Amino acid sequence: MLRKHKHVVAIVNQHGEVHLKPTQFENSKFKFNRLYELIKPFILDRHHVGLEATGHYGDNLIRFLLDKHCDVRVMNPLTTDAFRKQRIRKTKTDSIDCFIICDVLQSGHTTKMTKKKFVTREGKQITRFRQELMDSLTMVKNQLQACLDLVFPEYNTVFKTKYSKAYIAVLKEFPSAQAIAPVHLTKLRDLILKVSSKRINPELPNHLKEIAKNSIGEPNQVIELKIQMFIESIEMKMKQIEKLNHKIETLSKELNSPIFTIPGIGFVTGFTILCEIQDISLFDAPAKLIAYAGCDPAVYQSGDYNAPTTAISKRGSRYLRLALYQAALPAATYNETFGDYYRMKRSQGKKHHCSQGHLVRKLLRVIFKLLKNNTEFNPTLCI
Questions:
Q1: Rounded CA gap, 43 and 25, in Å?
Q2: Long-range contacts of 182-185 (CB under 8 A, 24+ apart)
Q3: Are strands 49-52 and 18-26 parallel, antiparallel or unpaired?
């Protein structure tokens, strides 16, 4: 039984005989070693150490037990709750929960934890954190654009690429049309050249200054300050995302999964898909993997009515679904098999988003095949 500061352990054999009554131990290295000394005499060729999947509280203990070569099994709290409800008395204590966990272990409704699975669990944390940063970056960019609409609405027409080095540098130094208009042209040109490696249109500083002079933007010092702070936030988040990308690339190479042999799937999307799926052995058919991702069409039927078209169920991991949709179109671009399949669906009269959904499900079927057989992608075998 896991808690934040203290855990509870009990030892029961396959016949239900109690060898160790529920005993508390603290969440520390010294107590972990004492725990191992307690359970060591009972560790045989066939043994299970069961824990509830209660967030991050048990991660350190699981890692410790795996290092000691214990057979660690993790169970869904919903399963233990279902076993608890089978009891007549409505009583819940840590000691009772220990014995319930033992009952679940006996039933086999558990998932075996390995060091490789632990890597994918850590990978899920880093990929989800990266996506949260990306969402946060998008929000800050939207706030920046709202401010620009007030103080310099014409600014985006000057630069071909939003958030380029020159785009960011000018705004950071001169956050409004009123701030840019009186600046000496040489100073403006030097600022742009400094961050652009001299690869810019020589007329850009002149054009920017001219537009600033004729801008309809309002003078507002508060918004100028907000723009500068938004720029600092964007720069910080972009550096953090770049750092995470390097870490994800390193972890991806360690996994060496066949999913990276699919054209169009890079380190970030591939690693995200792997970490969200975690264990392919949990799925015995592609349809179950598709349902887990929430990419299966929803069904709506009542009486004689049967809905002819429905959206996808969206019941699974949104992070997995997002990564799959990000990977689908590049796969169609860089591989003829996926490209032909997408064009076939379009030729059948299906709209872009519907065809993309079909493409994602095909991609999931291919991923299922590759991970199950641990084989590299072969376009000639895709059906």
A1: 19
A2: 183/209, 185/209
A3: unpaired
Residues 6+ apart with CB under 8 A from 49: 39, 65, 70, 71, 72, 73
Q: Is the pLDDT of residue 381 over 60?
A: yes
Using pLDDT thresholds of 50, 70 and 90, give the confidence band for residue 308: low
Here the tokens at position 156 are: 């985006």
Q: How far apart are CA 204 and CA 198, in angstroms?
A: 12
Q: Which residues pair with 18 in a beta bridge?
A: 12
List the beta bridge partners of residue 301: 306
Q: How far is CA 373 from the centre of its chain?
A: 25
Point out which residues pair with 52 in neighbouring strands: 75
Band of residue 161 on the pLDDT scale cut at 50, 70, 90: confident
Q: Which helix (H) or strand (E) element contains residue 254?
A: helix 221-255
CB 102 within 8 A of CB 50: yes
Tokens of 375: 């084989």
What CA–CA distance (Å, rounded) separates 230 from 235?
9
pLDDT in tens, 267-282: 999 999 999 998 888 8
| Residue of 215, 217, 1, 193 lying closest to 100 (CA atoms) | 1
Compute CA 258 distance to the chain's CA centroid, rounded to the nearest angstrom.
Answer: 19
Q: Note the pLDDT of residue 282.
A: 83
The 3-state DSSP class for residue 306 equals strand
